[in-house]
Specification:
Length: 290
């Protein structure tokens, strides 16, 4: 008899948590846009990685016996590929284009993950998913040729697409080399490794001028909320509803990213951005159909 109330509870809790996670990750692009002019991409990413790792560190300590030395041979490169490099690319793009651009490019992660699994890991892709990839890439082309306030954003789009490509590669590496590890602990390990990769660049590029309070607030929120706590929420969702359904949060991130940037810092949302977003999100939706 208790199963029915629990099922009802899960039914309302899941869409609420997916929406909240989409809003948090959508906020991350706004926070980067505000903070990166003061910090620069390297220092900002180092703050984000360190704070995110610290939030998750108790989980790693609790499960430390499951992380022998040989595990770190994969954890270290995965941290570089799945966190350090894409975070820097998105931060670099945030210096040069509206927050919505990075948020839209981020949606390509699902498509890149399928493409890399097909090219390098022998997974089947199917005609429908192949066509979805083509449509998604056409959306990137539309976005790259757009102009905002008369300025070209092509370089920022390329950086965002490359970051999503690295995420797609990281997803495949995680799937093959981190299976069986506690997810939150594994995330802490990869974020910690990523922070060590970034440390030399952060130290040599640390801002010389005083960083404003608003930039610090955005950097802290980016690390604590959008990285550490968001990872916890995402892994909880994966455990409850599975990775496929949890990945539907991908559809919400660009919507929240564009809406928050327009609402709080007045960034425009152009027709080309809407068209590119529709092409990319539509292709993701088609590729996800069972």
């Amino acid at each position: 008899m208790s199963a029915v109330p629990q099922a009802v509870a899960r039914d309302w809790r899941t869409p609420l948590e997916l929406t909240l996670l989409g809003a948090i990750w959508g906020c991350s692009f706004l926070f980067m846009r505000v903070a990166v002019p003061s910090f620069g991409p390297y220092a900002l990413v180092e703050v984000r990685l360190v704070l995110g790792a610290l939030v998750l560190l108790p989980f790693l300590w609790q499960s430390r016996s499951q992380f022998p030395a040989r595990r770190w041979l994969w954890l270290a490169p995965i941290g570089l590929i799945n966190s350090a490099l894409p975070f820097v690319l998105f931060a670099w793009a945030a210096e040069r284009a509206p927050a919505a651009i990075g948020a839209i490019c981020n949606a390509m992660t699902v498509l890149f993950a399928a493409l890399i699994a097909f090219l390098f890991f022998g997974e089947k892709i199917g005609v429908r998913r192949a066509l979805a990839l083509l449509v998604g890439f056409s959306g990137v082309v539309v976005l790259a040729t757009a102009k905002v306030a008369g300025l070209s954003i092509g370089a920022a789009v390329v950086a965002g697409a490359l970051a999503s490509l690295l995420y797609g590669l990281g997803v495949n590496l995680v799937k093959r080399h981190m299976t069986g590890l506690p997810p939150a602990a594994a995330a802490a390990a990869t974020l910690g490794c990523a922070s060590l990769w970034m440390l030399p660049m952060a130290l040599t590029h640390w801002p010389q001028a005083s960083v404003p309070g608003a930039a610090w607030a955005c950097a802290v929120a980016l690390g604590v909320v959008c990285t550490g706590l968001a990872f916890l929420m995402f892994y909880r969702l994966i455990g409850r509803i599975g990775p496929s359904r949890a990945s539907t949060v991908t559809y919400l991130v660009p919507l929240f990213g564009a809406a928050f940037a327009w609402l709080f810092i007045g960034e425009p949302v152009t027709l080309q951005m809407l068209l590119a977003g529709a092409l990319i999100l539509g292709s993701v939706a088609v590729s996800q159909r069972s």
